[in-house]
Amino acid sequence: MKNFTPPPIRPGIHPRSGLGYLIDNGVRSAVPSLFVFFVTLVLSAPLNLPGQVELMPALVMGTVFLWSVFVPVLMPSLVVFVLGLWVDILSFGPAGVMLLMMLIVHGVALSARYTLARVNFFVLWLVFGVVMVGVTALQWVLCSALALHIVEFLPFVFETVLSFGSFPVLYAGFVWTYRFVVNNTDRS
């Protein structure tokens, strides 16, 4: 008895498999990592923007959180580690603090991703805010311990508020990027 295979939906139209397809697929898969890379590069430059120092962790943590919840294959732990080293080198902060923060955000997002991927936007936003409060408090404790005195807490509060406030913009950018760049099935 022969196995029946249904005819293709669009006969005669098949995606090309070649070097161009592999490069296109590789670049599409690297979009989240490249975004974090270039955001870190641009925001570590002396642009004299107000809140520039606090904006970099806000954008980086939000990006790592979103991609780790919804598409963890594009934000694996090794990539988060390498990006954390990159952020640590360019942020001129205490060594390893941003790396640890990124790995904690990534771990929380990965461990709760099956629940977080099904909740609505406002619950996800609230969970991200709680995670950022905890991670920023840990950042303050580590910076104070490494400086051997208590560091002023206000910049860390501003960083948390900025992270919480920038999340809707990052989420909209994430949805657009995922829909039209990463997961674009119309690659004719």
Ends apart, CA distance between termini: 37 Å
Largest sheet: none
- Which secondary-structure class do the elements indicate? mainly alpha
Kindly report the average pLDDT value.
88
Strand content: under 5%
Shape: elongated
Based on CA atoms alone, the radius of gyration comes out at 20 Å
> Percent of residues in helical segments?
over 70%
Number of strands: 0
The SSE order reads HHHHHHHH
List the uncertain runs. none
Number of helices: 8
Describe the structure.
This protein is mainly α. The chain has helices spanning 19-29, 31-43, 52-70, 77-91, 97-111, 113-116, 121-147, 154-182. The mean pLDDT is 88.
In short:
This protein has 188 residues and is mainly alpha-helical.
List keywords for this structure.
8 helices; 188 residues; mainly alpha
Topology:
Layout: H1 19-29, H2 31-43, H3 52-70, H4 77-91, H5 97-111, H6 113-116, H7 121-147, H8 154-182
Helix pairs in contact: 2-3, 2-4, 3-5, 3-8, 4-5, 5-7, 7-8
